[in-house]
Structure formats: structure tokens, C-alpha cells
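Issue 218. Parser rejects a valid record. Input:
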Amino acid sequence: MTKILILYASLGSGHISAAKALSQAFSYFPDVEVQSEDALAYARSIYRNAVVQAYKESSEKFPQLYKAVYEGSDIEDLEKSLDSNLTWAKLEAPFFQRLGKLLRERDPDVIVCVQQIPTRLLQLLEPEDQTSKPQYVVVTDLVAHSTWLNYGIDGYFLANDLSANMLKQRGVDPAILQVTGIPIKLEVLEPKSKEEMRSRHNLPQNIPLVTLFGGGLNTRRVRAMISSLLESPSPLMLVIAPGRNEDLLEAIEDLTDSSQVKLRKLGPIDYVDDLIVARDLIITKAGGLITSEILARGTPTIIVDPLPGQEEQNADAIAAAGAGVQLRLMEMVAPAVQYLLKRPDRLTQMRQAALELGKPRAALNIAEFILKDWRSHIR
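Output the parser choked on:
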């Protein structure tokens, strides 16, 4: 029995989703036991609360500060970035004394990290907790930041060739770089048709369907965007999926169908993939996991309000590939929707570009590579 331990940090939903996808993928292989743990659950509460609050406050309320810190901490020199991350680990290690106990108790054969905090901490375990077990890092952004890089890593799994080439240029050994895509739920491998998904969720078959994923977006700006879309001169259905944006439905409570636009407001849902398949066009932020799910289904995307830092880089990668467009002005969203819906050839090109960039088998490919690599070392 091969024991796999997946470590993440619950800062945003993306890392949690990636850990779940990998857990599911490993479970498909025989004689594998997999466990997924939030590293922050093994931190002292003072550290955990401070980090979670700082992340939330800086990314949502002070985005330009977040961008400055993110870009300023991205170090091009490999040795300097490794040493910088080691220094951060030394500052954090006193708050994570329970992490070593977890490793002793679980005694994993392989450790897989899907967030920066646990992977840098593994460098500084107490002598009795030290492990020579292979450690792999799954980067959950479309472009790898230098904070993902640490000593003692046996392999990095990356979203695309762009990210791999950037790390090679910084001096990372190409032999430990694997381009697999970001691990997403295996549901994306199931055959689904637009017509079937619309029928399943009582959505109209004969008009364009635009879905807006509102999680993490500014409520006031989303309301303005929806109001503009309701003024569309052409028929369409607009579906609002608020995600973790708890205030969004209340903010748009008074908005209803217009003469040309049918408005559907959803509560919490567990069928995001169905909506991605049912769509003609999706409006969303640029989180690594949601955009990977959208790309895997070959869905044209309008990206709005990406967080400064990694989401801006995600948005740039998607726009550069021709799989989506990035808009800074909310006033441009409604005209862009109309423009694209009137040009099916352009949408077809965007769908093809998305399919070329998307990697629906990422989680399975990562699990397969790790198990093969591990077993080759124990023979």
C-alpha cells in the first residue's frame, strides 16, 4: 500500500479544490491510500488567524497593496528565491510544531503540496520529524511565482509550457518540471452536451446562455454589469451563480427579467460543470481552478476584475492564447457579450483555443506520474 499525503493551505477555495481533485485521482489507482490535510489546521491559532485575515484584507480591500507585495516577492534569481523562501519558513516554523507530529503519525510514502506554505515548511522539520520521502509541488496558478520554489523538491507540476519555460530561464532543473495542467475535478472528463445540460436544469434551448460566476467579485460592480446586460437588444438568458459571494443575491434582489433577457439567480450549487457545458459564454474572475475547469470544457470566457498578481497573470495567459478576453471596464462587458454572440466564428475560435489550453486529465496525469516515479525509486 502506497500512502500519499496531500498538504494544502485554506487560503481561497482553489487550493482546496485542487487537493480534492488529486485525492479523487489517486483513489482510482489500486493499493493507494490518500489523505488530504489543511496545513493551517496544524498551525497555532494566532498565526492561522493572522494569515487568513491578511490574505482576505489585502486581496479584497487593498488589491494594489497585494499586487505590490506579490510582484515584489517574485525573485528571478533562483538561489535568492530559494533562500528567501527558506527565510520565510524559518519565521513560520515555530507556529507549526504540530505539523511534524502529523507526518510522524501518517508516515506517508509521498508528500504532495498544492500551496506554498506547507512546501517551504517541509525544509525545516525537527530532526525527529525529518523525512527523506519524495516531495512534489503542484502549482495552482497558470504562471508559477518564485514562492513555489524550495529546496528538496522532486518534481513540479505546472499549468502550461509558458510557466515551465519561465522556471527554466530562472535556472530550475528541466528534469523536475512536468507540464500537466492544474488538477481539476474528474467530472470534466464525463461526456456532456449543451442540450442535455440545458434540459437537465430547465434552461432554454433556443436562445444564447451567458453565465456569470460572481464569487469574489465586487458586488456593486456586478450589479452594474447585470443591469447593463439586462438592456441587451437581443434575446438571451443570463444565469447568476454567486458562489461564495454571500451578499450578491441580496444586492440584485430587485433586478428581474427585461423585455429581451431572462434572468436566473441561483443559490449555492453543486453543478458548476453542468453550467459550464450549458453556456455560450461565461463571465468570471481569473482564479486558477475555475478558469482551468472552463478551459477544459472549451468554453469562451470574458474575464473581469482579476485580483492583482496571480489572477492578472492567469487572465493574460488565457487572453494571449485566444481562449478569452479580459475587460477592465465593467461598462464594456455588455457590448462585448453582444459582439461575441453575433460572431459565431469568433466563438468557435475561442472554444478551440480553450480546448488546446485546457487539460482535463491533469489530476490523473499527476497521480500517475507520481506513483510511477515513486515505484521506480523503490525497486
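Fixed in the parser; the record now loads. The chain is about 45% helix and 15% strand.
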